[in-house]
Amino acid sequence: MSRQSVARAHQKIQELSWEPAYHEPVSHYGTDYTFQKAKKKDPLKQVLRSYFPMQEEKDHRVYGAEDGAIRGNMFRQVQERWLEWQKLFLSIIPLPEISAARAMPLLFRTVPNPELHNGQAIQMIDEVRHSTIQQNLKRLYMNNYIDPAGFNSSLRNFQSDYCCGTIGRQFAEGFITGDAITAASIYLTIVAETAFTNTLFVAMPAEAAANGDYLLPTVFHSVQSDESRHISNGYATLLMALSDETNHQLLARDLRYAWWNNHRVVDAAIGTFIEYGTKDRRKDRESYAEMWRRWIYDDYYRSYLVPLEKYGLEIPHDLIEEAWNQIWNKGYVHEVAQFFATGWLANYWRIDAMTDKDFEWFEYKYPGWYDRYGKWWENYNRLATPNGHNPIVFEDVDYVYPHRCWTCMVPCLVRARTWWSTRSTASGGPTATRNAGGPTRSRSGRRTRADRPRTWAS
Question: Residue 7 to residues 3, 10, 206: CA-CA distances in angstroms?
């Protein structure tokens, strides 16, 4: 189908839209936002006649790769540490996908733009496809991995597990709860899909490939190829909202909420999978802090959000800087991993102990890591051997199990103490690429005095 005929078909679709004159339309999903019926274009001009052949080809590639993995005996070569964490990840991720599909109808009557309705309808189909191929990936792991326990019970465990059932559900159901624009546009397309899918669907698959798993990259790169369309839907809706000044305070409110909740949940999960689920300890491999600085701080915050300030968008600079501060200075990801490992007896996946090679890599990427976490992980390793002791959660290893936050449901892991706080610059963290994953260094390569880790204060 030629590009010209696609554009003509796309224009024809808009003519099929109408506002009924025989009754007063009822708003099924309310919103505090107001929109003018101004034309906002869908830059992708996607129509089903071109969409379905494209998605069919992508599915052929996904299922072909899955067949190749079975024939190539991938499941006997992949790192066990990595696939154990996938038991958790693949029990969570299909729910946000299907919630995203359910979110699109919230926007059909809320955003008065037939051209965007077409893009939103296609996004709804995308999200159902994503959930389907992710569930199929989990099934493939279950049928072929040497230890299927955890994959086979993930749906049941999702309902009862402390982490999946409560944290995962509050995150995913945020797409379909409350104000339609807040949930389905700001929270989902403008923050979750535009900012955090880079670490979720790009950085994490790269780590999977480094651990011998090339199925997850195949599936998730196929998913990510649809995200440009979803980002376009969110951006067009955002510009429509910005064109009415009465929406500016609502945008400021919702952006703060959406940013912080995404940071607490997505960074906790993906940061832990990437840092603690890998056996790849090459020194030139990016840490999660480096990935976050590149993909989210630079590409999303500085390149996507900041230019919109001149149109009246109030950006939560303080929360974005604090999110970086939590990852770089306060050990947020490491605290999450420690929390998961402490409660291993309630989990349905195994958590590998850290080795000397892991210690060396963490100390290189996060100088001072061993002083804070090394002894605890040594105790975890020691207590992994049954010899009459209690599980680590009941042993005296200088760790207090945290209460949870009743907003995001993530445990209150960063408490009244500071971790390596002298490492950050005035902007909230290192600004050079190398400094995003390590301390400032002198020309000789040694750490400077300012980079020595501080003692924790209670």
Answer: 6, 5, 36
